[in-house]
Amino acid sequence: MILVTGGAGFIGSHTVRALHEAGEECVLLQRRTPALPPRLADVPAAMARGDIADLESLRAVGSRYAITGIVHLAITPPWAADDEDAIGAAGRALDGFLNIVRVAKEWGVRRVVVASTIGVYGGVPVEGALGEDLPLPMRHFHAIPTLKKITELLAGQLAAESGIEIVAARISGTWGPGGHLPDPFFPASSLAHAAAHRTTPDLSGLAHQPYAEDSLDLCYVKDTGRALALLQLTPELRHATYNVGSGRATSNAEVIAAIAATEPGFHAALPSRDTTTPRRWLDTTRLREDTGFTPKYDTAAAAADYLAWLRAGNER
């Protein structure tokens, strides 16, 4: 069985479905609730309640199920809660990853796929394709990319010393059913939600003002989940780090046009920048060559599928 931490969440639930469709049984680890989300009601997956920062709760999962692989998507936020300081928060976040490797060693797991992020490329002075071998700035930009860069470095050391294959998946901007609303980094989900409900887009939750020309590697979540499943199941991988994305840059204007093609009455006007912004995307050559992955959804197909899901009465 494959243990998927955060398996009832946004990307996790689509990864579980992709693993199920590939013939694998899954155990979903969730910290808060042991109930399957409605979007997985037709998937015969097991639920386990536990916290990656609590080693004994992880060990309890291994005592109930024969775990053969792990897709680690859960994250302990690396910022301070009300009752702890920043050092304690960072320590708990790193403990979560270390505990996953501990139990993987105890259970004899061959491969652990660990979620990283496109955010690790922040500050890389490159326009165009972002390859996995690019040197990453060792500066702090945001708590999550900082944690992910540290995790990737630790993964290399621990893989070498433990014999466990630890694969880092640098996941692109992701949208689709079950997604974050609002997503603080890009407006696609908020735009789709507004179109489905015929309301004015509320973009106030974004961290920065979005512009029409702004672009990123935007991947539909069903493709993201399938790519992660392939990284777990492909018999032989030649690398320890893989970009997971669409392999193309998609602008906000292109998202709006794709949504409007499905919902002709939809209109959203984003301001234009005075200067040209560089288009950057994830180079997914490694992923394609080693796993055979190619995206099934372009922007138009993704918008149509997402809007249909929202119109069916689903919340996000």
Automatic annotation (TrEMBL):
UniProt keyword terms in alphabetical order: Isomerase
Entry keyword annotation includes Isomerase: yes
Known EC number: 5.1.3.2
Pfam families: Epimerase (PF01370)
Keyword ATP-binding: no
Domain called NAD-dependent epimerase/dehydratase: residue spans: 2-245
GO MF assignments: UDP-glucose 4-epimerase activity
Family indicated by similarity: Belongs to the NAD(P)-dependent epimerase/dehydratase family.
UniProt name for this protein: UDP-glucose 4-epimerase
Organism: Streptomyces murinus
